[in-house]
Every structure is written in C-alpha cells, then in structure tokens.
Amino acid sequence: MGGTPARGNNSRKDDACARRREELLSAAAKVFARSGYPGTEVQEIAAACGLAKGTVYLYFPSKEELFLATVDRAMIRLCHHVRETCAGIDDPLDRLAAAVRSYFAFFQSNPEIAELLIIERAEYRDRKTPTYLEHKRENTKDWQEVYAGLIRDGRFRAVPVERISRVVSDLLYGTMFTNHFSGGQRTPNEQARDVLDILFEGLLTPAERETRASRERATVPAEQT
Predict the structure, then answer these.
(1) How far apart are the C-alpha atoms of 177 and 190, rounded to whole Å?
(2) CA separation for the pair 80, 82 (Å, rounded)
C-alpha cells in the first residue's frame, strides 16, 4: 500500500517527460526544416516551446542527437500513419492502394519531413544507413509477405518479392520528392492514381506484351549459339 503513491507519481512524471519530449521534437522538426541544420540554434527550439535552452539538453545531450531523434520520430509517425490507414482492409490490393495514398497524404500534410530527409542526407553523408532506409527495411518484410500472397493467389506475376519491394519503394520515394520540389502541385490522390495505374496495369497493351515476348523467344537460340 505504501508504495502505490510513489508508483503513481513516477508514472505521472514519466508521462510529463514523454509529452515534453514530444513537444520538443515537434518544434524541432519545424525549426530544422525552416532553417537547416547549421542555421538552427537550440535556443530557437527551446523558445518555441517556452523553455530555457538548458531544459532541452536534459532530454537531448546535443543538437545532433536532437536532430536525429527528430528524423526518427518523423519516420515512426509515417509508419504509424500508413499502418493505421490500412488496418481493417482485408483485400491485399486494396490495402496496398490505401498504403500508397496514405504515404503521399502524410508528406502532403507534413512537408517539413521531406526537408528533414534532405537535411539528413546533406549533413550526414557518412551515415551507413539513413533513417528513412532504416525504417523502410524494418517494414519491408510485412509488405513482401503481402506480395508473396498475391503471387500465390495468381494476382501478381511471379516476380521476386525483393524486386517488387525495391521498385514500389523507389516509385513512392521519387514521386514524393518530385512533388515536394515542385511545390506540392499534385494531390495525394493524383499521385497515388498514377503510381497505382502503372504498377497494376503497366504500360504495354496485352497485344504488345505478346509481340515482345514472341520477339524475345525468337532471339534466344541466336544468343545461345
């Protein structure tokens, strides 16, 4: 009985620390995105939260650790947003389509996160694995299982799931940054529509696919001799 109030106090203290940390990371994302890494002063982030500069260092020992934690938080938010959007969608193709739309919608609503990824690449070129790629790698297995299921069900061609993952990831990443650099002129739905159309339907008509396949079959003996 005597220990219960202490545990309650510790829990409230932990909750308060977590909220303060989240507040600092949220403010840091906006300041770093606006001012860049070299141009950002920790004092500016502290002021945005109504805190003294020293308080920031109680949570993050250096500006570098604060920045990297900010990027990590951004990627955790992205992954959570996509998973939450896809929850409860049974059909794997519908789930994939929802994931693509939610990916673009996330960056449309949080353009500062695209800037954080650019800054990380510029300032930490020697990092073995950028934060974006680290989180992508952690989530790749789940999507590869989805692709494998679609192949087993005869809904996807028998393409190696690693190849599918790589192409889909590159399409999303490249499309997101192109739209970001152009000022976000295309909506998330427009971006998703184009990516999904090419991904699901391809470019060649069935007749042209057969023509090319026949041509390739005809050249095999010549190449082998």
Answers:
(1) 15
(2) 6
Determine the Cα–Cα distance for residues 71 and 132; give it in Å rounded to an integer.
Answer: 8
CATH number of 1-61: 1.10.10.60
Question: Domain-by-domain residue ranges, the chain?
Answer: 1-61, 71-224
Cβ pair 103, 78 in contact under 8 A: yes
The model's pTM is 0.85
What are the C-alpha distances in Å from 195 to residues 75, 155, 171, 192?
21, 18, 7, 5
102 closest CA partner among 124, 121, 80: 80
Alpha-carbon torsion 123, 128, 134, 136, what sign? positive
Which of the four CATH numbers 1.10.357.10, 3.50.50.60, 3.40.50.2000, 1.10.150.320 does domain 71-224 have?
1.10.357.10
Q: What is the pLDDT of residues 164-204, one digit of tens each?
A: 999 999 999 999 999 999 998 899 999 999 999 999 999 98
| Other beta carbons within 10 Å of 187 | 14
Nearest to 131 by CA among 77, 188, 197, 206: 77
Residues 15-47 have pLDDT tens digits of: 889 999 999 999 999 999 999 999 999 999 999
The pLDDT tens digits of the residues spanning 151-165 come to: 999 999 999 999 999
